[in-house]
């Protein structure tokens, strides 16, 4: 197959590219550094020529729900419309477990992105994933200072490379709409994971946990980010993943 990976130079995208190539597929990397801009559509028609499936792992680092919504909706429409013109037969989107239960701006933007993808001219598959193991490192290092503040969150973290492999597997098959969710093997408190990272690799900080205000915080603390049905379960535990990191 010929598979295009939108956001293929990001850290998740690189894993998807690796897994697709390992499976024997020809990969087209879609990124600004390759002269292809998913926000404007520049270069998309040429990039998707002859492509069988698109895997979208693009992302925007923001807590502003309006900005996230505008970005994801524009990117998805551009990929869908260019894909239809190029004869792409499958659009695979990475999303997040809990976007339909946690009323947070970024999550609402991802939920809207799912709807746009599923309503587009190219048949789509949406894979909701739990937080990656790497999320604990990002939370610890996001801000400077001696203290890391972590929202109360019960999660079932999963190895990003296992999610990448599942995205490729889904792209190889027929579109299914909402795919079974993927999560890791253990239910854990995010603050505990951040503390483990601080103790093991640093930076060494005090880790404080508190619930976010409102419905979103209550949902996160109460399991809104846990899978709510059967699905794919990764095998690598957080401790196993952490022992591999430098």
Q: Features of this protein?
A:
246 residues, 12 strands, two-stranded parallel ribbon, six-stranded parallel beta sheet, alpha/beta, Rossmann fold
Describe this structure in words.
Helices cover 41% and strands 19% of the residues. The protein has 246 residues and is of the alpha/beta class. The strands form four sheets. A six-stranded parallel β-sheet has the order 2-1-3-4-5-8, with helices on both faces. Strands 6-11 form a two-stranded parallel ribbon. A two-stranded antiparallel ribbon has the order 7-10. Helix 1 (11-22) crosses helix 6 and helix 5 (134-141) crosses helix 7. It is globular. The model has no long low-confidence stretch (mean pLDDT 96).
CATH level-two architecture = 3-Layer(aba) Sandwich
Number of strands: 12
What's the Cα radius of gyration? 18 Å
The helix-and-strand class reads: alpha/beta
Major sheet summary line: 6 strands, parallel
N-C termini distance:
35 Å
CATH fold-level topology = Rossmann fold
The main sheet orders its strands as: 2-1-3-4-5-8
Share of β-strand residues: 15-25%
Low-confidence stretches: none
What is the helix fraction of residues, given as a range?
40-55%
The CATH homologous superfamily name equals NAD(P)-binding Rossmann-like Domain
Short summary:
This protein has one domain (2-244): NAD(P)-binding Rossmann-like Domain (Rossmann fold), CATH 3.40.50. Helix content is 41%, strand content 19%. It has helices at residues 11-22, 44-47, 65-86, 105-119, 134-141, 160-172, 190-200, 214-221, 238-244, and strands spanning 2-6, 26-30, 53-56, 90-96, 124-129, 147-151, 154-155, 177-178, 182-183, 188-189, 206-210, 232-233.
